[in-house]
Design a protein that fits this description.
single chain; 456 residues; mainly alpha; Serine Threonine Protein Phosphatase 5, Tetratricopeptide repeat; two-stranded antiparallel sheet; 18 helices; 4% strand; membrane; TPR-like_helical_dom_sf; SusD_RagB_dom; RagB/SusD family nutrient uptake outer membrane protein
């Protein structure tokens, strides 16, 4: 997408309250003056995408909360940074862990920016196409944020408009079902986005991204028929190589994340050396503050050399091959994939299998498309003869194909593998504790902390 520097937006969008001295010059943008035309709204959209890059989200903390927590990456340094990452690794985190508060605040900061756009755009004169594109992008990112929130914490506050401090102090956590209702509603809006953007706008959310993410939401809800409904046309376009396509992973990672047709939506970063992506230098760096890739090479099949190599670090202190893009001033410009064609095929295979009493050719074709793309032999219905055998094959393929892409922990939880992968860990640890800093700022603390954790 167009890279627009909008520090003026940051100045107003990062402010979560109004109790500051108003000594701005007359030409300083405010909420009243910034969102008065399409140019202002477009700048705000860039600000929405920008926060996804934060070290509190896809830049760093998501990798701790979603991968270190799982069994692909481990941390063995109990002293680094006060042990906050090690606590996530060994399931001893408390509501005071700053990984949690950082991610929570950044997600709601992004939602705040989305809400500003959505509530101000109605008063702006624009074409219907512009209205659809602006609303769709803000809705897509808001849905993505709430999807991450509900998977990390379960019940969370639903905030769809800017709030005063007093209103914020009275927020309550909403039932998971209501959070999913909002996510679905937002993604239906986002389905109105273009399938592709002009080359200069590459990287913006598309209707493909909206449908893929919506299907993933339905997968978590176990609404398998809706998964199929959302993905049928996407799968057809992937198979026809129309706009999208499965691409061998070495042709996507690490240097072609911006251009590969396998990427449906990614968090994008500018080229290194400009101060934007400095936190990327720590993206799973081997033995950096105790983080080690723990996905055993033996988990891969003998011919799975490409995926195996992309997961393995290139040496001590180096990133795994998947994200080992060239660095400038210790910064890389490698994007972070959120939705890929390979995952679409695996979701389709999983849903089709769940809807049938026995594995079907339709489900097998989708699974084999990913395997063949990885230079592996396709499976047969004789090999995957039962629903459970097929299900486990999909789960394993997801682990290997999507390794290090912030999905593994959620897959462990949603597929009921917690007791198998982490025997002896209490079930309540499937959700993280609500950050203590958030609870301290609400008036009524009753019902705010997740089961198993205490409100201090």
């Amino acid at each position: 997408m167009k890279k627009i520097i909008i520090s003026i937006f940051t100045a107003i969008a990062l402010s979560g309250c109004n109790d500051f001295i108003d000594l701005k010059p007359v030409d300083f943008p405010t909420e009243e003056t910034f969102y008065t035309d399409v140019k202002g709204l477009e700048g705000a959209i860039i600000g929405i995408y920008d926060e996804l890059q934060s070290s509190d989200q896809y830049g760093s903390k998501f990798m701790t909360l979603m991968e270190v927590r799982g069994d692909n990456v481990k941390n063995d340094n109990s002293g680094a940074s006060g042990g906050i990452t090690y606590q996530i690794e060994v399931f001893t985190e408390t509501p005071a862990n700053s990984n949690l508060s950082g991610a929570w605040l950044s997600l709601y900061k992004t939602i705040y920016r989305c809400n500003l756009v959505l509530q101000n755009m109605e008063k702006v004169q624009m074409t219907e196409e512009q209205r659809t594109q602006i609303a769709g992008q803000a809705s897509f990112v808001r849905a993505l944020c709430y999807f991450n929130l509900v998977r990390l914490w379960g019940e969370v506050p639903i905030i769809t408009k800017t709030q005063t401090v007093a209103e914020a102090r009275n927020n309550k956590r909403s039932p998971v079902s209501e959070v999913y209702d909002l996510i679905i509603k937002d993604l239906i809006v986002a389905k109105g986005l273009p399938e592709v953007w002009d080359e200069s706008e590459r990287g913006r959310a598309t209707s493909y991204a909206a449908r893929a993410l919506l299907a993933k939401v339905y997968l978590y809800m176990k609404n398998y028929q809706e998964v199929i409904n959302e993905l049928t046309s996407v799968v057809a376009d992937i198979n026809a190589k129309r706009n999208l396509s499965l691409v061998p992973m070495p042709q996507t990672f690490p240097n072609n994340l911006k251009t590969s047709k396998d990427i449906i939506f990614a968090v994008q970063y500018l080229k290194g050396g400009v101060g934007e992506s400095v936190h990327q230098n720590n993206r799973y760096r081997n033995n950096d503050n105790g983080n080690i890739i723990s996905l055993e090479q033996a988990e891969f099949e003998n011919n799975d050399d490409n995926r195996k190599a992309l997961v393995a670090p290139t040496g001590s202190g180096q990133r795994p091959g998947k994200f080992d893009a060239p660095a400038t001033n210790n910064e890389t410009s490698a994007d972070f994939p959120v939705m890929r064609c390979a995952e679409v095929m695996l979701m389709y295979a999983e849903a089709a299998n769940e809807l049938s009493a026995i594995p079907t050719q339709e489900a097998l074709d989708a699974l084999n498309a990913v395997r063949i793309n990885a230079n592996l032999m396709g499976k047969t219905l004789e090999e995957l003869s039962t629903k459970e055998i097929f299900r486990q094959a999909v789960y394993k393929e997801r682990r290997l194909e999507l390794a290090l892409e912030c999905d593994r922990w959620f897959d462990i939880v949603r597929t009921g593998q917690m007791t198998t992968v982490f025997p002896g860990i209490a079930a309540y640890r499937q959700l993280y504790p609500i950050p203590q800093t958030e609870i301290e700022n609400v008036s009524d603390k009753d019902g705010w902390q997740n089961e198993g954790y205490t409100v201090e």
